[in-house]
């Protein structure tokens, strides 16, 4: 048995931030990641990280725009922390060695992004996530944090109602181990791959959401799924919002800059309006016949110099995967699944919650941060650049609180026998001689989710999605593992991940069915208006043997009262 004060599951930005800060306040810390940590999806973040550093900007303006971007569903206590305290976190990254791009005065260069007319997105070219991740990892290696690279967590352990560790498999040997911990922090990222296509890496399968859900944690805002306006049609790869932030246009087949048109409210921010707004507009253009092969066009030709200077990655992606030189020709793009606003419900210290009859109460020992968590800093729609900040800031807060909690309790009692239960599950999987294959079911699930729970939703489609996902899940016991070896068995991992993904799909659909209004990314064609009177509340779901059960939690409002949302 391996024992630590704090076990961090996930080695992306949130996990590293949590592990670093838990370690800094004196806890013994282990960080477990199913991939080598610097390969986490955080490495794919191109555009940047927000901080209101400009003279004409302030954390209050950033917070107001985040609240408005969230369509007033975001919890404002969390948003205040994100926008105010996050500034110091970005400075800390800079001091640790993140080589942010500079402006001519030698200050950190900030680019424009969606949902604001300010420039507040700090970046390293278009490879921001990768750079931050590497700097954090170097720092982590210098500290007394043990990193278990390529270990896969299969279940969480509970004792007397508190979380006290996890069982994980060393992928290189297939051997299971018990990790005993006084506090566990889930930083496993989102569940983007429950959709096909998605901008997310193939590893983003919602494992942590399902792990927490199965031990009773509430999942919140799961209906809030962000579609990003500019993804490549061939494979869903992302073209950063930074391109529009620095002046790129969107065009329809008639050569019209449709975001300037009256039919979309002639938004003052035009192409830089919030992601939900632009994704809806693009979808309508395509549906009404003003698209080109299911796409609209992103025109970067007039910002050729900036592309050559600061967008190497996206220009190479466009050449390699779309055959387009974006300095010469417009690029076909379309909205694609990108980000989960919802996740494991936490408070501002990262503590998870469970249902207790008439409300919720903390689930002792369990924490979460990053995209896996829902502190609800993003509400119904996230502003670009706010997620990396969320990971760093709320990762820090979860790490500190978990370490303090761990120092206040005794070591839990757990027996090694839990391994046998997990081992038996794997033996049973190996014993199956049936014919279903995980990738096929995964693709079916993803396509159902994209078709019925995408940019636009309505009751009949959601019920159809519920029925079809249920039917696909019923085939799960027929899924077999062809590779019977224990060493680096990715076939086995795919089957385990698929099981987690079904929980995510079901909770997204249940939450989307529950919310009978349109707000942010959740657009119901049968309930087209936002309805603050009935729906200014969070939808939260918890696990029951019959599937997800829905409950409601209040939205925290501090300074900013709900108002009509216009750009
Ligand atoms: C293409 C792309 C571009 C983006 N660009 C931006 C941007 O410019 N700005 C911005 O703010 N946001 C951006 N985002 C969003 C942002 O990058 C993510 O929300 C954020 O990086 C998530 O970080 P995380 O630490 O929560 O999770 P991740 O980075 O996804 O890390 C998850 C970790 O959990 C581990 N893990 C998962 N399951 C298990 C398991 N069962 N056992 C053990 N370990 C497990 C993984 O190994 C991994 O280490 C982008 C996202 C994408 C997909």
General description of the model:
This protein has 567 residues and is of the alpha/beta class. Among the domains are: 233-335, Flavocytochrome C3, Chain A, domain 1 (Alpha-Beta Complex), CATH 3.90.700; 418-529, Up-down Bundle (Methane Monooxygenase Hydroxylase, Chain G, domain 1), CATH 1.20.58.100. It is 35% helix and 22% strand. The chain has 15 helices and 22 strands. The protein has helices at 13-24, 59-69, 76-96, 128-142, 207-214, 242-245, 275-287, 304-310, 312-322, 386-407, 418-431, 438-452, 459-474, 490-514, 532-535, and strands spanning 2-9, 29-33, 49-50, 110-112, 119-122, 145-149, 151-159, 162-170, 175-186, 219-220, 225-231, 249-251, 296-299, 331-340, 343-345, 351-355, 360-368, 373-374, 456-457, 523-524, 537-544, 547-554. The strands form five sheets. Strands 1, 2, 6, 7, 8, 9, 16 and 17 form an eight-stranded mixed sheet that branches. It has a five-stranded mixed sheet with strand order 18-15-10-21-22. A hairpin with a 4-residue loop joins strand 16 and strand 17 (360-368). Helix 1 (13-24) runs parallel beside helix 10. It is globular and about 65 Å long. The termini are far apart. Flavin-adenine dinucleotide (FAD) binds at residues 9-15, 32-35, 37, 40-42, 44-49, 128-129, 152-153, 187-189, 199-200, 204, 207-208, 238, 339, 370-372, 384-388, 391.
């Amino acid at each position: 048995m391996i024992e630590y004060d704090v076990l961090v599951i996930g080695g992306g930005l949130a996990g590293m931030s949590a592990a670093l800060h838990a370690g800094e306040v004196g806890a013994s810390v282990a960080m477990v990641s199913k991939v080598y940590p610097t390969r986490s999806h955080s490495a794919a973040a191109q555009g940047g990280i927000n901080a209101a550093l400009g003279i004409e900007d302030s954390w209050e303006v950033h917070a107001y725009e985040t609240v408005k971007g969230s369509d007033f569903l975001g919890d404002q206590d969390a948003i205040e922390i994100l926008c105010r305290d996050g500034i110091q976190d970005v400075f800390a990254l800079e001091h640790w060695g993140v080589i942010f791009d500079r402006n001519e005065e030698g200050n950190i260069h900030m680019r424009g992004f969606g949902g604001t007319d300010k420039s507040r997105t700090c970046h390293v070219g278009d490879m921001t996530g990768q750079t931050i991740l590497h700097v954090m990892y170097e720092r982590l290696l210098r500290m007394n944090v043990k990193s278990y690279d390529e270990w896969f967590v299969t279940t969480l352990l509970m004792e007397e109602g508190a979380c006290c560790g996890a069982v994980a498999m060393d992928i290189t040997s297939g051997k299971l181990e018990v990790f005993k911990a006084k506090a566990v922090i889930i930083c496993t990222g989102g569940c983007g791959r429950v959709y096909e296509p998605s901008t997310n890496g193939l590893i983003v399968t919602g494992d942590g959401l399902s792990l927490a859900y199965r031990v009773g944690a509430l999942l919140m805002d799961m209906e809030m799924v962000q579609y990003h306006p500019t993804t490549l049609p061939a494979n869903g790869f992302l073209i950063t919002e930074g391109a529009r932030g620095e002046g790129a246009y969107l065009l329809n087949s008639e050569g019209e800059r449709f975001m300037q048109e009256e039919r979309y409210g002639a938004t003052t921010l035009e192409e830089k309006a919030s992601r939900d707004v632009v994704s809806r507009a693009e979808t309508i253009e395509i549906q009404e016949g003003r698209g080109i092969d299911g796409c609209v066009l992103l025109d970067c030709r007039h910002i050729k110099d900036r592309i050559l200077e600061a967008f190497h990655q996206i220009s190479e992606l466009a050449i390699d995967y779309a055959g387009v030189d974006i300095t010469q020709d417009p690029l076909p793009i379309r909205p694609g699944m990108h980000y989960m606003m919802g996740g494991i419900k936490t408070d501002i210290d990262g503590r998870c919650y469970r249902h207790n009859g008439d409300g919720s109460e903390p689930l002792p020992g369990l924490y979460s941060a990053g995209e896996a968590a829902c502190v609800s800093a993003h509400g119904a729609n996230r502003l670009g650049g706010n997620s990396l900040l969320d990971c760093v800031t709320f990762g820090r807060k979860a790490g500190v609180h978990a370490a303090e909690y761990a120092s206040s309790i005794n070591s839990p009692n757990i027996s090694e026998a839990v391994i046998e239960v997990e081992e038996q599950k794997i033996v049973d999987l190996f014993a199956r001689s049936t014919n279903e294959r995980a990738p096929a079911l995964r693709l079916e699930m993803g396509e159902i989710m994209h078709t019925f729970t995408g940019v636009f939703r309505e009751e009949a489609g959601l019920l159809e999605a519920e029925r079809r996902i249920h039917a696909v899940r019923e085939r799960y016991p027929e899924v077999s593992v062809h590779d019977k070896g224990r060493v680096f068995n990715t076939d086995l991992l795919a089957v385990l991940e698929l099981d987690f993904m079904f929980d995510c799909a079901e909770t997204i659909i249940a939450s989307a069915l529950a919310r009978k209004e349109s707000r942010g990314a959740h657009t119901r064609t049968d309930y087209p208006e936002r309805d603050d009177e009935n729906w200014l509340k969070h939808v939260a779901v918890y696990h029951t043997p019959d599937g997800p059960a829905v409950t409601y939690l209040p939205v925290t409002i501090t300074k900013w009262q709900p108002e009509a949302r216009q750009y």
